Amino acid sequence: MYLGIGRSPVPIMAYLQTEKNTLVRNIPLTNFQYRSRHKPLTSEEEEKLYQHFDKLLPVDAESDGREKNLIVDLAFSGATICDTKYYLNQYIEARQRKTKEIRSLAITATSLEEELKQNHPTFDVFSLAGNQSTITDAEKFDHFLMMMAAKMYKDKAEYTWFDIKHPEEPKIRPAYQEYVREMRLAKSKHTLGLLNDDWTNAAFEIFKNDSEYSPLINLLRYASTNQSSDAEASQAAKDIISEIVSQKRHHSIASE
Amino acid sequence: MSLAFCIMRRSAAAYLFFITTLAFAEIGKKEFESVERIAQYILDT
């Protein structure tokens, strides 16, 4: 069973959902860093979290014998994955679920791969560092990560947000199923060579010669070294993109 | 309308284009390939 944490890995989870015989669950967890960055949950909050898991995770009979889980998330520091794994293990024990193994996959930028591996030796870490064919590929991939980090896919997420400190319940968003259908269609089109170049290329072309481009990519490292939370890093990514837009506009006005 | 003003508008529009229209844009080739690469890694391991 593949467990996508929050809204960042939405495109990955949608793709996995288009595959045969996969069991995919999206788990909304906003700013979930209780233990690594914030105080551990109280027993009342833990029970609220378990009820949240009860609603989203299939019971043993529905999981069709699958006893392994893989947590998937975009990671800067790894804190969210680490804490989610801890509380999922607690949940499995408390509810006496049959699940035996929880693994973690941190999707990250090339510049952060080694650091994440050192800090979290049990994580499986994916970046293009070990998979790239060219530097340009890695740079484009990192740009794609930035868009995920900046929550550009939040409107396609399966659920609205869920914050353990907030009473509001997450709601289902129909846009996700539409996105899964779109992903299925993109898969067919890609096989036939019918997919068009997209915003990723356009964004790369715009940024590649800019002096501001480098800080954009290095933001991931900044987020990690400054121990800021993933949410802060996401906000910083948005701020930097806005700043670049604003600077460009300013330069254009000045040159006029 | 001056030439510089036209360039300014075009530049700003280019940046705003991919930022604001992503939510409505179709899945494109590079975007799909990035997603597929990660997903295949997950499925293979």
- Classify the oligomer: heterodimer
SSE run of chain A: EHEHEHEHEHHHHH
Radius of gyration of chain B, in Å, reads 17 Å
Distance between the termini of chain B: 58 Å
Provide mean pLDDT of chain B, rounded.
62
Catalogue the unreliable spans of chain B: 1-24
The count of domains of chain A is 1
Total strands of chain A: 5
Uncertain runs of chain A with pLDDT below 50, 5 residues or more?
210-228
Give, in spatial order, the strands making up the sheet with the most strands of chain A: 2-1-3-4-5
User: What structural class do the secondary elements of chain A suggest?
Assistant: alpha/beta
Strand content of chain B: under 5%
Question: Mind describing the biggest β-sheet of chain B?
Answer: none
| Shape descriptor of chain A | globular
Helical fraction of chain B: over 70%
Total DSSP helices of chain A: 9
Instruction: Please identify the structural class of chain B as seen in this structure.
Output: mainly alpha
* Main sheet summary of chain A: 5 strands, parallel
Give the terminus-to-terminus CA distance of chain A. Answer: 57 Å
General description of the model:
The complex is a heterodimer of chains A (256) and B (45). With 256 residues, chain A is α/β, with parallel strands linked by helices. Chain A has helices at 10-17, 43-56, 79-94, 113-119, 135-149, 175-191, 199-207, 213-225, 230-255, and strands spanning 2-5, 24-27, 68-74, 101-107, 124-126. Chain A has one domain (2-255). Chain A is globular and about 55 Å long. Mean pLDDT of chain A is 76; it is low at 210-228. With 45 residues, chain B is an all-alpha fold. Chain B has one domain (3-44). The chains are: A alpha/beta (256), B mainly alpha (45). At the A-B interface, helix 1, helix 5, helix 6, helix 7 and helix 9 of A face helix 1 and helix 2 of B.
